């Protein structure tokens, strides 16, 4: 008899056989959500992190790449690219935003995504990269290979979200985007986070 169990979405699922070219992605939040969900690191279940207090709506599917971790290697990339105030990675799996033309109603699911770029975000001295990807096979976005193929207005929309989603009207902003990068650097960030995961939790790359 096969025992019943649920694989932990962070530790129990691979980043994908063809990572970093195509990556497994665990989706936590969809654009219709007014609640920010995130995976509970102990149980692997989605939990409520916080309700969105203001008008920010996630502009695309949002989640993380399994078996990634942002620490020393991700920090080194940020410093290499010119960030002077980074002390560490953010100690979380690598965040990913997946562009998709379909209406997906809820998170807690896996999908294959192709990284096309990302944002090198620095938040309170921590490297907190946001990978931008497209869903494999999507009729509108699936053919794109680099963030430079996106309309500039779409890039600005994604950037604006990440610069404002943590801000409260009466508080000073704590994060900035150091760089917008293309597919090749996105793959470097993914590989760095896979190495950080291996160093932290063990297992082969």
UniProtKB/TrEMBL annotation:
Alphabetized SUPFAM superfamilies for the sequence: Inorganic pyrophosphatase
Enzyme class: hydrolase
Keyword Metal-binding set for record: yes
Transmembrane segments: none
Cofactor(s), by name: Mg(2+)
Highest taxon of the lineage: Bacteria
Alphabetically ordered keywords of this record: Hydrolase, Magnesium, Metal-binding
InterPro entries: Pyrophosphatase, Pyrophosphatase_sf
EC number of the protein: 3.6.1.1
Any one Pfam family match given in the protein's UniProt record, by short name: Pyrophosphatase
Protein name: inorganic diphosphatase
Organism: Cloacibacterium rupense
